[in-house]
Design brief:
By secondary structure, the protein is an alpha/beta fold. The protein has one domain (9-237): NAD(P)-binding Rossmann-like Domain (Rossmann fold, 3-Layer(aba) Sandwich), CATH 3.40.50. The chain has helices at 18-29, 41-53, 68-82, 105-133, 154-173, 200-213, 218-229, and strands spanning 9-13, 33-38, 58-62, 87-90, 137-141, 180-186, 238-241. 45% of the residues are buried.
Length: 248
């Protein structure tokens, strides 16, 4: 298998469902070693067992991305067990959308902590190893909402735009170390993300929207694999994709 994926040690946050779970399965099937981080440890342990039962290498580590030391421990576990880290996919995210005048301040803070700080903590954990290796690939998950904003989604869009800004700054800074960076911005993908919306009217509208147009999570997995599988001198910096039916 000559796909530039086989044998790579790939750390994935938010691996217990949705995009992260799909990426873990897809990359593992292509020969990657996957290190799975999420708070729902039973789920990632089950996924790791499923993959190892198929002959793959997989490790599950309980990880809350809002805690820097836990993200660092996740990456350290990858290096301790497999000798290096080749890719980190900073995927964990929340989308509790609501109009600003509903003053969901705790949810704003939660999105900032998970969607922005979680990405920064992933970068902070992986970057020292990748600098020393003079190789590595940091993949940060943004969203179509990181490119466009709609009423009710201001804070979520702000966090996902921040991911793009951080990633572009990172891209420029890591040139001396031969590192690659990719932003992946999905549209409506069939995941548990809409379930994080607490406002009943907003949740109902979003659930209907997703039911009508959302595409499978393996669309994300294929985008990730495309970016990783390129020759080392090709840096796919951003992938923006949507369901064909999605106007926003």
């Amino acid at each position: 298998m000559n796909n530039n994926i086989e044998g790579k040690v790939i750390v994935i946050t938010g691996a217990s469902s949705g995009l992260g779970e799909a990426a873990a399965r897809h990359l593992s099937a292509q020969g990657a070693i996957v290190v799975l981080g999420a708070r729902r440890v039973e789920r990632i342990q089950s996924l790791a067992k499923e993959l190892t039962d198929k002959g793959a290498k997989a490790l599950a580590i309980s990880t809350d991305v809002t805690q820097h030391e836990q993200v660092k421990a996740l990456v350290n576990a990858a290096v301790k067990n497999y000798g290096r880290i080749d890719v980190i996919i900073n995927n964990a995210g929340l989308m509790p959308q609501s109009p600003l005048d509903r003053l969901k301040i705790d949810e704003w803070n939660q999105m900032i902590d998970v969607n922005i700080k979680g990405v920064l903590y992933g970068i902070a954990a992986a970057l020292p190893y990748m600098k020393d290796q003079k190789s590595g690939h940091i993949i940060n998950v943004s969203s179509v909402a990181g490119h466009k904003v709609r009423a009710g989604g201001a804070v979520y869009s702000a966090t996902k735009h921040a991911v793009r800004v951080i990633s572009e700054g990172l891209r420029q800074e890591v040139k001396p170390y031969n590192l690659r960076t990719t932003i992946i911005s999905p549209g409506a993908v069939d995941t548990e993300l809409p379930n994080t919306i607490s406002e009943p009217d907003v949740a109902e509208n979003m659930q209907k929207y997703y039911k009508d147009i959302a595409i499978p999570a393996d669309s994300f997995a294929r985008a990730v694999a495309f970016a990783i599988s390129q020759p080392d001198n090709i840096d796919i910096n951003e992938i923006l994709y949507r369901p064909t039916k999605q106007e926003f």
